[in-house]
Design goal:
Blueprint lengths: L3 E2 L18 E2 L2 H11 L19 E2 L2 E2 H11 L4 E5 L6 H21 L4 H7 L2 E7 L4 H18 L4 H10 L1 E5 L35
Parallel strand pairs: 5-6, 6-7
Antiparallel strand pairs: 1-2, 3-4
Helix pairs in contact: 1-2, 3-5
């Protein structure tokens, strides 16, 4: 389920080519109707963003957290989110992180698992993609999560470490990082470094 057509990620490897900014989107009402009509009948629940940035989507006061809440109420099994922290979306991302962190607190309390098994079993993964054009925004949001948001929710240093090890992944897409893409893609085998929902077979519902 692709919430927007086009995004602000500016990734040169995107399946759809680089589209600067959102040029189309679904309304919240249309997403809600689709999910309530078809969700229960789907053996495998759809990805909620596909090759777009989920935090680019907003509609009359609603943002990705509202879509996430709807999926949770309908019984979503797992969710993989990838974001480049588009400009102006920091508050929406913070709202989403708080929701996921509250879930993680309950999950950790109820599951005495190793970090490895906790990572496999906790249903939400959040990937932050860093490139030259967004490195400061991503750094700021990660520092805010670790130093401000999670402590305010009662996380101690161990909880914060567990949250990052279980939920958060950071992909580096800058020339001096181990993952080289874009103009440098020929210098390294990229197969394992650009995995996304677009790599899976299936049907895309797009605006």
């Amino acid at each position: 389920l692709q919430l927007t057509d086009g995004c602000n990620g500016d990734w040169p490897f995107c399946l759809f080519g680089v589209k600067r900014g959102v040029i189309g989107k679904f309304s919240y009402e249309s997403i809600e109707k689709f999910m309530k009509t078809y969700w229960e009948a789907m053996d495998i629940k759809p990805s909620l963003y596909w090759d777009s940035d989920p935090f680019d989507w907003h509609d009359r006061g609603k943002d990705f957290s509202d879509i996430y809440n709807l999926a949770r109420k309908l019984g979503d099994g797992a969710l993989y989110v990838s974001t480049a922290v588009p400009k102006g979306t920091e508050s929406s991302i913070s709202k989403f992180i708080e929701m996921v962190a509250q879930e993680f607190k309950g999950f950790k309390r109820d599951h005495s698992l190793s970090i490895y098994n906790r990572y496999k079993k906790f249903p939400v993964k959040i990937r932050f993609s860093i490139a030259r054009h967004n490195i400061q925004r991503v750094e700021d949001i990660l520092l805010n999560i670790a130093n401000e948001q999670l402590p305010k929710l009662g996380f101690d240093t161990t909880d914060i470490s567990d949250f990052f090890n279980t939920v958060v992944k950071v992909n580096y897409m800058i020339e001096d990082a181990p993952f080289k893409l874009g103009a440098l893609i020929k210098t390294k085998d990229p197969v394992g470094e650009i995995i996304s929902p677009a790599c899976n077979d299936g049907v895309v519902v797009s605006p």
